Amino acid sequence: MAKKNTPSVSPSHFLGFVVFSLCFFVPKSVLGVKKELRFRKNGQFKILQVADMHYADGKTTSCLDVFPNQMPTCSDLNTTAFVERMIQAEKPDFIVFTGDNIFGFDATDAAKSLTAAFQPAIASNIPWAAILGNHDQESTLSREGVMKHIVGLKNTLSQVNPAEVHIIDGFGNYNLEIGGVKGSRFENKSALNLYFLDSGDYSTVPAIPGYGWIKPSQQLWFQRTSAKLRRAYMREPEAQKGPAPGLVFFHIPLPEFASFDSSSFTGVRQEGISSASVNSGFFTTMVEAGDVKAVFIGHDHLNDFCGKLTGIQLCYAGGFGYHAYGKAGWSRRARVVLASLEKTEQGGWGVVKSVKTWKRLDDEHLTAVDGQVLWSKSPAAGSPE
């Protein structure tokens, strides 16, 4: 998000009507397609979230909001170095880029900037995925063009949109399934479900100012995908009593992110919540689905908190990129998410028992901060680790 001084608008419930068709809807399992995602033999699956790189033209692009003595040598390459450091330090199983991957206005060639921005992930041979923010399309490619370019890059599991959906708003709506440990009783089940949605850029409705939002067609796709995954998880073999936990990734915060004060979240809030000026109802949709445990976004670079509302953790990542606005002296940062399986009575790996998170700062030691349990099968979720 570009830093703007815009008046806040009280969230109001938006009722929209969209004509769309979902033909023969069957969510496509990723297990066995391209590079499969599954829990490691140690029963863990680690995700690195990178928000708001704002990459432009590489070494010729200057940094924003750093100390004066840092300016002469600071560029997009500092962002690249930070991604590389995070990959080396955390050794994630999967990397998620949650939008504003490039800052379109300053990117001379969108395709080149996108490829350069994702290069550390490409070179690592670690599977990765990306969604769009509100700035990715402001260079030489449309939103559809940006997403198609991303999908064509090496090692990505990104999708332009679900192949089985006839009409859906936006670009970059898809889901991925994380299989159980190879050789375990749950190897053919998705133990953890990841949902990715395009939260849009700006409103296209003249009477509604501000940012975009997740549309009814996207919400219907999410509902049907969640329901299909629930049915698969709760049937034999190894039928479960409830759904597998789900994690949701998009860029622009929902109005519900404004529900917290400093006593009810972990992290910091240093700027306003720049959500759409209408409430699309997607938070309620997620609550009704019953499987979502946490949401991960970007957009507001100076916020990095997680707060729990109606059973769902709402988490900012904090600003990552050096060509994005920030705050001198407040380190750029990344979020790490770790899902862990429980042991069965027979000693093998079972279902997910907990989802934890922490952030790392781009300082000398990649300092880890704000470790917490986001969700667990016990009632202690949300507490510090």
Keywords:
single chain, 385 residues, alpha/beta, Purple Acid Phosphatase, chain A, domain 2, seven-stranded mixed sheet, six-stranded mixed sheet, 13 strands, 17% helix, globular, hydrolase activity, acting on ester bonds, Probable inactive purple acid phosphatase 29 isoform X2, metal ion binding
What does it look like?
- With 385 residues, this protein is an alpha/beta fold.
- It has a single domain (44-376), classed as Purple Acid Phosphatase, chain A, domain 2 (4-Layer Sandwich).
- It is 17% helix and 22% strand.
- The chain has five helices and 13 strands.
- A seven-stranded mixed beta sheet has the order 4-5-6-8-10-9-7, covered by helices on one side. A six-stranded mixed beta sheet has the order 3-2-1-11-12-13, with helices on one face.
- α2 (110-124) links the parallel β2 (94-98) and β3.
- α1 packs parallel to α2 and α4 packs parallel to α5.
- The longest helix is centred in the middle third of the chain and has 18 residues, at 216-233.
- Residues 3-33 have low confidence and may be disordered.
- Homodimer.
- GO terms for molecular function: hydrolase activity, acting on ester bonds; metal ion binding.
Topology summary:
Layout: E1 44-50, H1 76-90, E2 94-98, H2 110-124, E3 128-131, H3 143-151, E4 174-179, E5 190-196, H4 216-233, E6 246-249, E7 265-266, H5 282-289, E8 292-297, E9 306-309, E10 312-316, E11 333-343, E12 349-361, E13 368-376
Parallel strand pairs: 1-2, 2-3, 5-6, 6-8, 8-10
Antiparallel strand pairs: 1-11, 4-5, 7-9, 9-10, 11-12, 12-13
